[in-house]
């Protein structure tokens, strides 16, 4: 109670006239229009005309159409309030006509004032006691601490555990159920779903889909699949997960529903399966699938549509693994000298962005997320072709994926707007980046820092913000100078170009002849791919068992086996990596290590930095978790 309002006994029993210094609580309890004399009723009553502006209340006691009206200290009120009115030059109240005695009236005045003062004092005490009792009772029932409403300290409402919900190793039973459903839907599309005794694929839907549709008419309207049970008509392996509706979701901003249909019609189940597994790389397979579930708010149908559409984009539109990552910088350097005219122009534009350092990866923020710096001032619209910009963007994103160290799953992008002008503004690459992160690399952004943005960017930001999904827009932060970055990055890990303490600057190193000779050993590559394909089948088998009977001993053993296989897949990828991916600048500089992991800060005897998942949660066994 002391923390909420501090009033002395004298103030409670003999309140002063209502003024700007009156506590807010007292102002709410005292009826509007009430006027009180000074302590012991010895001071003169307040004069309306003599109240200085500094003593007037800042807010009216009664609502008014005018948001800032002139306060009225003595408005018209009940009869007893008229005792506050007085004639000029006199402290005595106006005597009613026909009064017998001034002394008698003065005695009545003191009696009325004393009675009113005592009544209000009692009301205040009762209100304060009741308020305190209610707050203590609420705190006891909810298990929360009693906090004063006058306490302006920020309250942390996001616990680390809540921030990491929905990620690998921290799923609720309902989220695990959604994960199993999505895996089963993926298996049906890829032709590897569980086949029961009746020859039908096991359904990933609840036993009573009709009831679910009755509960949610909107979901029925935009549902993409008519889920089938084992008692319904069989659906052959490799077909879609059921009868697909033609009507897209109203929120399908990138036409992914249409692309989903086209992909199922144009690509074989095995092709879709291979694209999904090639996308996994060193990730936990569940981590990849969960990205799409979280992005679609755990709607299995929408997550499946998004995932299949993204796989089509990787395989058919961008050729991510078969071209961009396989040929890399060395392939572009070769085309600069020996390519056909179109390929040569594309390669020149592509490599120009590397050499100028339009963007680069370096360092980690306080959450362990890799940092990508984009120097916006270096971009000149039309200087490079749109295709080269897109390939360059995808290469940077894919390389950023490689430097993620579990349990980190997101990156931090700094758009350095220092020196930006309208001559640097180009909406096409902005739209492409937005589509990449919203449609094809969901849940990959941890923070977006727009640094040192000039005033001219305000109008541009209003346009860009309208294109962003609200979830992505919420991750955008505007920072200025070093102090703004220090909220996200340790001072000794902010590069000097951004006014930090780290003595590091970007310098491009050209591809070294022979750095990709390992890729010529196709025999070893094929053997590694064959062994990896076996791990895929083992993971699929364990997942089918987990889907079929998650609560049985067999299902729990299968779940544990999945984790072991996922760890093998991660280690196995780094053995395969030099045979399928061209070396990058970060490989040549020794920042991306051969067996996985990164070394951004080359310091001797450096203590390992505790890793988090980008949401503030430390990985098991780190000093932070052990209380170090």
UniProtKB/TrEMBL annotation:
Ranges annotated as biased composition (Low complexity): 230-243
Database matches in SMART domains: CRAL_TRIO_N, SEC14
Compositionally biased residues, Basic and acidic residues: 246-255
Entry keyword annotation includes Transmembrane helix: yes
Keyword set includes Nuclease: no
Domain CRAL-TRIO: 347-506
Keyword terms, alphabetized: Membrane, Transmembrane, Transmembrane helix
Residue spans crossing the bilayer: 113-134
UniProt-recorded name of the protein: CRAL-TRIO domain-containing protein C3H8.02
Organism: Tolypocladium ophioglossoides (strain CBS 100239) (Snaketongue truffleclub)
């Amino acid at each position: 109670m002391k923390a909420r309002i501090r009033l002395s006994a004298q103030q409670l029993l003999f309140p002063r006239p209502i003024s700007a210094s009156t506590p807010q609580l007292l102002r709410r309890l005292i009826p509007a229009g009430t006027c009180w004399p000074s302590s012991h009723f010895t001071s003169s009553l307040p004069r309306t005309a003599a109240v200085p502006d500094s003593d007037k209340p800042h807010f009216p006691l009664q609502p008014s159409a005018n948001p800032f009206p002139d306060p009225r200290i003595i408005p018209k009120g009940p009869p007893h309030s008229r005792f506050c009115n007085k004639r000029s030059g006199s402290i005595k109240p106006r005597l009613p006509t026909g009064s017998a005695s001034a002394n008698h009236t003065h005695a009545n005045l003191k009696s009325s004032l004393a009675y009113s003062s005592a009544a209000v004092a009692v009301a205040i005490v009762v209100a304060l006691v009741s308020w305190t009792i209610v707050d203590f009772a609420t705190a006891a029932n909810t298990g929360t601490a009693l906090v004063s409403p006058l306490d302006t300290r920020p309250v942390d409402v996001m616990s680390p555990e809540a921030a990491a919900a929905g990620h690998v190793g921290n799923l609720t039973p309902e989220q695990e159920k959604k994960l199993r459903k999505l895996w089963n839907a993926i298996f049906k599309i890829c032709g590897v779903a569980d086949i029961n005794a009746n020859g039908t694929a096991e359904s990933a839907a609840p036993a009573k889909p009709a009831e679910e549709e009755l509960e949610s008419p909107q979901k029925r309207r935009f549902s993409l699949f008519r889920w089938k049970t084992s008692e319904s008509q069989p659906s052959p392996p490799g077909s879609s997960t059921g009868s697909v509706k033609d009507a897209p979701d109203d929120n399908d901003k990138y036409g992914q529903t249409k692309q989903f249909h086209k992909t199922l019609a144009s690509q074989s189940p095995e092709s879709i399966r291979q694209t999904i597994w090639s996308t996994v790389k060193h990730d936990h397979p569940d981590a990849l699938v969960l990205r799409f579930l979280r992005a679609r708010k755990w709607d299995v149908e929408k997550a499946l549509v998004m995932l299949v559409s993204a796989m089509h984009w990787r395989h058919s539109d961008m050729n991510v693994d078969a071209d961009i990552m396989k040929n890399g910088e060395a392939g572009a350097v070769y085309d600069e000298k020996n390519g056909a005219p179109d390929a040569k122009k594309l390669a020149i534009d592509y490599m120009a962005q590397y050499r100028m350092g339009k963007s680069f990866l370096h360092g980690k923020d306080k959450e362990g997320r890799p940092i990508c710096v984009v120097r916006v001032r270096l971009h000149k619209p039309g200087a490079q072709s749109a295709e080269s910009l897109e390939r360059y963007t995808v290469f940077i994103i894919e390389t950023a994926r490689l430097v993620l160290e579990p349990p980190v799953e997101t990156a931090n992008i700094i758009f350095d707007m220092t020196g930006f002008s309208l001559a640097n503004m180009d909406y096409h690459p902005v739209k492409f980046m937005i589509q990449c992160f919203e449609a094809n690399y969901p849940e990959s952004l941890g923070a977006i820092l727009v640094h040192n943005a000039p005033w001219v960017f305000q109008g541009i930001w209003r346009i860009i913000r309208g294109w962003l999904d609200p979830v992505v827009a919420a991750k955008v932060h505007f920072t200025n100078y070093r102090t703004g970055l220090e909220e996200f990055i340790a001072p000794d890990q902010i590069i000097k170009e951004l006014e930090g303490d780290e003595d590091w600057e970007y310098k491009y190193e050209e591809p070294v002849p022979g750095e990709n000779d390992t890729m010529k050993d196709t025999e070893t590559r094929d053997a590694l791919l064959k062994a990896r394909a076996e791990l895929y089948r083992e993971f699929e088998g364990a997942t089918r068992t987990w889907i079929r009977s998650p609560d049985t001993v067999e299902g729990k053993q299968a779940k544990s086996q999945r984790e072991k296989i996922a760890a093998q897949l991660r280690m196995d990828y780094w053995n395969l990596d030099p045979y399928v991916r061209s070396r990058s600048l970060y490989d040549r500089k020794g920042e991306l290590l051969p067996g996985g992991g990164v070394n951004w800060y080359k310091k001797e005897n450096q203590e390992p930095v505790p890793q988090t998942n980008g949401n503030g949660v430390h990985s098991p066994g780190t000093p932070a978790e052990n209380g170090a």
